[in-house]
Amino acid sequence: MKMNFKNNHSYTKFCLGLCAVLFLVSSCKDDVGVPDYTADKSRLTQLADSLNRVYTSSAEGHDIGQYPKQARAELKSALDLAVSVNTGAFTQQEVNNALGNLRRAATAFSARKIEEVAASNLIAKWLFSGNAQDATANGHHGTLMTGIIGTAANHSDGGTLPVATTDRFGREANAYAFDKGAYIEIPYDAALNPDQLTISLWVNVKEANADNYMISLNKWNGFKFQLQTDNFLFMTLKTTSATYDRDSNPGKMAVGAWHHAVVTAGNGAITFYVDGVQTRTESASGTAFKLTSPVNIAIGQILPKSILNFTDTSSPFYYSSAAYFRGSMDDIRYYNKALSADEVLRIYNNEKPD
């Protein structure tokens, strides 16, 4: 077979060169050395031990002072990495990298602790954890009530109280289901009639209805927050300037699913949010109208049943037809300011299911 001298010559040169490199590496191995695994791990050990106690004592959940599930999982992942570095053979640089990673994880975890949003402006918070008590120190406690159904000419008491039901996390008796006129009544207080307001709540609509009243303070003579037939959020607000009707189109509630619903009123606008996202904002000048006579707040109804009038159509409390909520509600927050988009998103992120 004929040899290709040129190619054979090149191959020989390559092999000689490779041998020279291997010889050089072998003869100089004392100069190259091996990685130094005698690293100082004391700071990593100290921080890991401290954060492990923090992790162990932290509570997972969605209440004030707790941490979301994801936040605890991320800290645990960083702790596991630190443990593996502590017990293995690693260079000082690798140990330092693990220490920096753990410090960043600690900072991120601390920021995820659930804190009250706009605490100084929170008038009331009804968590519906087996009762209708106000979870703030303000004492705006509610009473479970049966409500009126039917028409003015043919009305009756629905005879049903709000029923404790499963919330969006699957916890039993941690929300209330409303039907047949059932509602919760909150005694009037001047603090419940602020110049500006925000209402935040979780809603699971049972069925669409034109008058699905969620919360009302003397209906359109104060404000009413409800759902329309197509399940858009709808707010009627009487101010010192006019009475405004605004809706959340295109944001809506899907039947049979939990959604976060928020309306803010103040600073010249009424703004709606669905699941943390602003869906619509429209102008509304003036501040909220101050009631001249006390009217209790109704959660799930148009008005408290004790003041309803069934005969005088000129009465501001005339009952023309049923206007009550059908579905479940939970975690109602009532503020005396128009929350910002960032504050609304924080509430949503704190309270949404994992």
Report on this model:
Strands 1, 5, 6, 8, 13, 14, 15 and 17 form an 8-stranded antiparallel β-sheet that branches. The protein has a 7-stranded antiparallel β-sheet with strand order 2-7-16-9-10-11-12, with no helix packed on it. It is α+β, with helices and mostly antiparallel strands. The longest helix has 23 residues, at 5-27. The chain is elongated. The protein has 6 helices and 17 strands. The protein has helices at 5-27, 29-32, 42-57, 69-87, 92-111, 341-351; strands at 122-126, 143-145, 148-150, 155-157, 163-165, 175-178, 183-186, 197-205, 212-217, 223-227, 232-238, 243-252, 258-266, 269-274, 277-283, 297-299, 327-335. β10 and β11 (232-238) form a beta hairpin. The model is unreliable at 1-9 and 11-31 (pLDDT under 50). α3 (42-57) packs antiparallel against α4 (69-87) and α4 (69-87) runs antiparallel to α5 (92-111). The chain has 2 domains: 42-111, AF1782-like (Substrate Binding Domain Of Dnak, Chain:A, Domain 2), CATH 1.20.1270.90; 119-351, Jelly Rolls (Sandwich).
